[in-house]
Amino acid sequence: MATHPTASWQAMQDGNTFYRRQQLYSVPGKLPELSDYIVAGCQYGGPIALMRDSTKLLALGRVTPAVTKAQIQVFSPAGEGLLLFSWDQGKIIKFGWSLDERLVVLNEEGVYRVYDLQGEYQQFSLGTDAADTGVIDARIYGNGLVALTSSLTLLEVKGWEGARPLTLANPGLSEPPHAWSIIPPDLNISRHVEVLLSTETTIFTVDNLENVDQRLSRGPFTHISPSPNGKFLALLTFTGTLWVVSSDFQRNITEFETTGIPEAEGSVQQLEWCGNDALIVTWTNVVLLVGPSGETIPYHYGSSTFAVTELDGVRVLSTDVCDLIQKVPASTLSVFRPGSTSASAILYDAWESFNRKSPKADENVRSIRPDLAKAVDECIDAAGREWEPYWQRRLLNAAKFGRGFLDFYNPTDFVNMGQTLKVLNAVRFYEVGIPLTYTQYDYASPSHLIGRLTSRNMHLLALRISSFLSLKPDAVLKHWACAKIMKSRAASSGADASGDDEVCSAIVEKFEQLGGADVSYAEIAKKAWEVGRGGLATKLLDHENKGSDQVPLLLEMKEDKLALVKAVDSGDTDLVYYVLLHLYKRLPLGSFFKLLEDGGPRLAPANRLLEVYAREQNREMLRDFYYSDDRRVESAILCMEEATWMKEPNAKISSIKAAHKFFSEDKDRSFEAKMMDDYGRLLSAQHQLDMENDGRISSFGLSLNETIRLCLVNGMARKADKLKSDFKVPDKRFWYIKLKALTEIRDFEGLDAFAKSKRSPIGYEPFVRHLIEKGYAKDAIAYVARCDSPKRADLYADCGEWRLAGKECKDRSDKTKLEELRKRCPNSMLARELDQILSSMK
Q1: pTM for this structure?
Q2: Could you tell me which residue ranges the Vps16 C-terminal domain spans (predicted)?
Q3: What's the alpha-carbon Rg for the chain, to the nearest Å?
Q4: CA distance linking residue 89 with residue 87, whole number of Å
């Protein structure tokens, strides 16, 4: 039977506060002598990393191997080896742990690596300035680090993604600090990291904006340790005085002299917090617990120790054991404290009496009936605080017993605690080696724990816990798939297609079996690609449902055609454009267009989208696209469109000639080719005409009719005749153009000479009509006589010559037309004259 919980309790001098040392693991012979190593511990029951301290002599022998290179070993708290790797990147300045259990190693040149527990790492740098000046010290916390350079400046890095380092305010140091520490951003009101530097007798606080002297007089300090909640600071002076103050240095909490501790030899090794209300001071073989009021409890160990501050206590490791020292929780104290009269203690006693079939059980339950619900809650909470499953079961049974006497009680807390304890007991097992307390588990969340298990490749346990807690298994399955790919690569470095098929089918089958519907195959495929398994990556991507996840990786893998096909199949035009533009920038032009051409009907939508984009955004691309696809007509039309926008004559003529060339290469477009040839010759003639007139007239771009008209209006009849001849303008059209041009410039003599030059191909009625239209009716009269006789009467009338119209009717003996004119005449005088002509015809 497990020992009673109170067996490990020790009371402070006031008799009301108890602390307990719980042995988590017995690790004899598993860990080396810690005093010979530099050690970094990870919080939340995490592993420890050890590196040989080169400043200390090491006796070599059969037990201790010779080490020529710097090596870092990682052990679980149970003493199981997790990782061993060599370091050849210069002198290591500092190493520590991130929140997600990755080991961060920083060297003197400002280069830092972030290792996972499988030995894979990412490498980053603090920049050229840090490389030039060198790094002499650093502090690493969960989400970043602060480095101290040789020039005594501070550089901060946020996160572990290779962010650019930020320079903090100038600390104004003339020599390295005696001790320094940091308060992480999440514990500061300002949400910025705060650096505490011990110099001479005071402490400077430095953040990204300012450097503040706290004006202390008790320094210098050898150790500075902030509490886990960031509200208090523990300071150890050179004289051995332990001084606890608030983090703003406004309140003095307690003082304690560490110099008179029995069996404490040498200097203080570590100053760590035990939760937020007590401190641990360590020497070689002694660990001293100092309470809030200066009370102490000594703990003795057979070898050197290393302490890791936890949220609710402190973890102490030695070569023999791994212990957890913490304040006894209130619920545990209420149940098990000797002589306790609390309701929870009476309920536990009642349950024990019930098991012994003693009538005292009913009496005890009746006595605490008003506080029974509170007692049940305390028993449930106390069960979560116990390490041994034996006592966990007993406390939960006591809670279950008390719950039976309550009319209304929500069992959610009871069920949740049972689930939580089952999970905690599983991960506390020495082969897993994560000694997580209930407080730490509740603070860090179950998903964080599952992430820690997958980082150790404990996928089966992580999957079972996910299923047990009704959490999605996606993260576990993703990590398992990546680990399987890595393992298969190691097993067969020359993996063939059959090996890829086997791994792919195993991953897909497992996902379908365990419901990993939301797992992105693209992320797993990317891992396969990174380790040189391109064929496997392509096969995995075939199972990815989201084209937006498939396509970027396919482009990175240079699977260009497949990427374009997947983008087209997705129906996402933006994704198709993304692929097209990416390939257009990366591939040679010929290869790009050949890829589209070889795609056939399946890539036809991509061709159309490219054409639409190029027409609006990149005409040069469109020209190349048409040319590569041998689309002569479209190329010619493109040249014509561009010619309409051009203002420079030579460029426009060249564009039209290019359109003529494209049309002429298509035997079905001879008419268009002829039109383009004529238009090009016209533009050349217009350009020549404009140059000869020194820009006084502007004919470039006008139609042929307008150009002839412009020549006639400006007195260049010969030029007009030449254009008529060159472009074979029909006589009828030319006569119309010249009629209108001469009328426009009111050259009636020239018009008369033109009309008499030869027989008019358009007749003379157009002369009369046009002159009347332009308001030159009197000048039109001279041309009426040359018109056909049936129309003369009406034309005379239109010119206002009614008498001549009547005379024309008389000469032709056209009495009907004369009567019609009589009715239309504008006044009575003309009517009488027409009547006279009409009477003379009788």
Answers
A1: 0.74
A2: 519-828
A3: 50
A4: 6
